[in-house]
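Hallway conversation turned thread

IA: we were arguing at lunch whether anyone had actually written out UDP-glucose 4-epimerase end to end. Turns out nobody had. So, for the record, here is the sequence (321 residues) and right after it the structure tokens. Reply here if something looks off.
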Amino acid sequence: MTWLVTGGAGYIGAHVVQAFRDARIGVVVLDDLSSGHEEFVPDGVPFVRSSILHTDVVARTLDEHNCIGVVHVAGFKYAGVSVERPLHTYTQNVTGTVSVLEAMQRAGVEAIVFSSSAATYGTPHVDLVTEATPTHPESPYGESKLIGEWLLADQGRASELRHTSLRYFNVVGSGAMELRDTSPHNLFPLVLEALAQGRTPRINGIDYPTPDGTCVRDYVHVADLADAHVSAAKALAQGRELLPVYNLGSGDGVSVRQIMDTMAAVTKIPFEPTVAARRPGDPARIVASGEAAARDLDWRMSYSLEQMVATAWEARQAAQA
């Protein structure tokens, strides 16, 4: 029983691969290394360097490794940059997903877990986002992820495809010292890099209608997230009925100020963040319920904020050793 993980050399994808191996499920990785790292792929895991846009390669990989399903993590994941590069974003995320589905159809593979995003919701005007919250993406990235969900649903109606999509918010931490978030846009690596270089991290806006005036967001440890992908894959392989979409959320969230305070405590680098103006379009609070995923996928958050920061810091330090 082998699964193909597209984007399996990236930060999230590599943790998904690790979770599959921990569950003793066979896995093969396909990644073009545009943002991933070949060294993230464990020894003994077959690795195919290719873009998901190369349908023939994807189909051949599925055939050669007798794959029964796909965890589709590959994609262009930078929401802000997607506004400047919409055509690139749609090519990677929409055309790329079409290519994966076409390859699956050719190879007779009928199960897929799709890495979606909370960006599909845009700026929801509710205290707690659920799967029933209307979608209103506000970037080409968010739009492309929503279209990906539509593609799965349409192909499911037209064929025997079994599928589910996992929407998540801010993914942080590390599940292994050799795996870390190298994104130039995410909060955790930005703050930790600033501290490591002796610079002072920055908070954008301290006058939001939240308990401490800073934005409140959902943060999920990457290892918990990876486990959800494995649970979903197992359920699909067993023929269990799943919802088309699940949120992976904390239910309460944490503020940017709380993160900064925790960063200082864990790293033992005392600092007072500089304060800048709000960034346009930043909502005060976005927090999601994970109740449906807990019910159907037996999913739980097992890492505290301190552990999220500590594992991210340890992985960052290990990379520089």
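OS: looked through it. Residues 86-107 form the longest helix (22 residues).
IA: good, adding that to the notes. The chain has a mean pLDDT of 95.
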